[in-house]
């Protein structure tokens, strides 16, 4: 699936999935959680910089589209990462250091229709 979107005319989107328990149960400051999402998104783009979809996404600088979803906890985030890996979906699981805490993940940019079915069980981050 990683190369399936190359050259596809579909709208490119970068999905970011953040653990909502960091804010709602563990009382992390919202700014710290947003920072985690920024780290993951930047890392995913960097790791897949040469990918044709990533290049097209970056060329459309003023119309980038991101969707930020919430995972209820670390187990759900880790399970999603494993499912994405098994499906061949390129992503970066961000693990905050030195605490070694998985906080979020970001996919490289994909045509929305390619990855949306894998993300359906997650709701927009609140």
Automatic annotation (TrEMBL):
A GO MF label: peptidyl-tRNA hydrolase activity
InterPro entries (alphabetical): Pep_tRNA_hydro_II_dom_sf, PTH2, PTRHD1
Domain of life: Eukaryota
Gene3D superfamilies referenced in this protein's UniProt entry, alphabetically: Bit1
EC numbers on record: 3.1.1.29
Catalytic function, reaction form: an N-acyl-L-alpha-aminoacyl-tRNA + H2O = an N-acyl-L-amino acid + a tRNA + H(+)
Main enzyme class: hydrolase
Keyword annotations: Hydrolase
Pfam families with a match to the protein in the record: PTH2
PANTHER family hit by this protein: PEPTIDYL-TRNA HYDROLASE PTRHD1-RELATED
Protein name, UniProt field: peptidyl-tRNA hydrolase
Provenance organism: Amphiprion percula
């Amino acid at each position: 699936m990683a190369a399936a979107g190359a050259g596809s005319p579909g709208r490119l989107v970068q999905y970011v999935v953040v653990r909502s328990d960091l804010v709602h149960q563990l009382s992390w400051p919202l700014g710290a959680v947003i920072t985690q999402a920024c780290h993951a998104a930047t890392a995913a783009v960097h790791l897949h910089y040469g990918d044709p979809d990533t290049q097209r996404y970056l060329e459309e600088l003023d119309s980038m589209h991101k969707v930020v979803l919430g995972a209820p906890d670390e187990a759900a985030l880790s399970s999603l990462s494993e499912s994405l890996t098994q499906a061949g979906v390129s992503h970066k699981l961000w693990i905050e250091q030195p605490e070694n805490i998985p906080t979020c993940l970001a996919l490289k940019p994909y045509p929305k229709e390619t990855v949306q079915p894998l993300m359906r069980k997650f709701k927009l981050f609140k």
